[in-house]
Amino acid sequence: MKKFLPLIILVTFLFGGCGMTTCERSEIAMGTVITLKATGSDAQAAIDESFTRIAELEENISADIKKIEESAGNGEFIKISPEVYEMLEIAQKYSELTNGAFDVTCGAAVELWGIGTKNPRVPTNEEITAVKNFVGREHLHLHSGKAQLDLRGVKLNLGGIAKGYGVNIARKIFIKHGIHDGLIDFGNSTIFAIGKKKIGIKNPDDPSKLAEIVELKDCAISTSGNYEKFFIVEDRRYAHIIDPKTCTPANSGISSISVVVFDDVKNCATVADIFSTAFFVTGLERAEEISRRQSHVKILSCSKRIK
Ligand code: ADP
Ligand code: MG
């Protein structure tokens, strides 16, 4: 028996002993359904800790945005949580790199159109012209953990980055708990595949069906499309991503675009989330140009708009 002992220990270690389990949990948070799946001896702890941290992130975002907006225009720099500060720093960096296609100061324009709310509407030209004064990254200032909006009425919207940042938080927690196989899925919008995983990309013309299934490993994928939050007026579809230059819904000819960023890039899911939104605004041609310069950002697939 003694001579078989090392073999038994090895087999137990390799094939699921040592409390090696697969756990899965879904919750509604950050305006979407988040599903976390993990395999490992610490899988449950990794998932539980991730959901706790995601809830904290969501609270910090609301509280910090409220504080910053309330003090907008009064010259004060407001101390905010380190994670919201980091998110805003990343947002500003990539706003510049995308020539303003991605811009978290688009909040006033997002609110004006109300797309994804119960009361979306096409604003008047006067309203659109007026709201342009309240959109622009030059209004957001960051310094030593503090933030300031220099004009009252400018609003922050982290809808295009927060899910990606949340994915990265969960990813770090999974690493800490030694998870080498799992999936971090924020509403099918930003996903991290730990180990080899098959990911379905929705067909924007019929989101109940998949356009394709891709196999990914150790990377983040983010998809931005016009098929979940939109409204139609006079046969025209207005979707939730705003072109910050025109303050109208982006009309670049894309109906869905998916971007992949690998794990060796810092905050890869955050970066993927940003670029899928930005590319939806710029259109495919400019997206390809940007992706050639930012070579860590790969365009995985893109569907053109029919109408
Ligand atoms: P989803 O949130 O559905 O996953 P995205 O990641 O593309 O989709 O983010 C879109 C959201 O980002 C919008 O609902 C809005 O809150 C915000 N947003 C809209 N336009 C922009 C923009 N040009 N730059 C940054 N954020 C934007
Ligand atoms: Mg995004």
Describe the SSE topology:
Blueprint lengths: L4 H10 L6 E9 L2 E9 L2 H28 L7 E2 L2 H16 L9 H7 L11 H8 L7 E4 L2 E4 L12 H15 L4 E6 L3 E14 L2 E20 L4 E4 L2 E4 L2 E2 L4 E2 L4 E9 L5 H15 L1 H10 L3 E8 L3
Antiparallel strand pairs: 1-2, 2-6, 3-5, 4-5, 6-7, 7-8, 8-13, 9-10, 11-12, 13-14
Helix pairs in contact: 2-6, 3-7, 6-7, 7-8
This protein binds adenosine-5'-diphosphate and magnesium ion (MG).
Magnesium ion (MG) binds next to strand 8 and helix 7.
Number of domains: 1
User: What is the H/E string?
Assistant: HEEHEHHHEEHEEEEEEEEHHE
Cα distance spanning the termini: 72 Å
CATH architecture: Roll
CATH topology: T-fold
| Rg, Cα atoms, Å | 21 Å
> Which strand-content bin applies to the residues?
25-35%
CATH H-level superfamily: ApbE-like domains
Mean pLDDT: 94
- Per DSSP, the total helix count is 8
Bin the helical content.
25-40%
Which strand order do you get reading across the main beta sheet?
Answer: 1-2-6-7-8-13-14
Protein structure class: alpha+beta
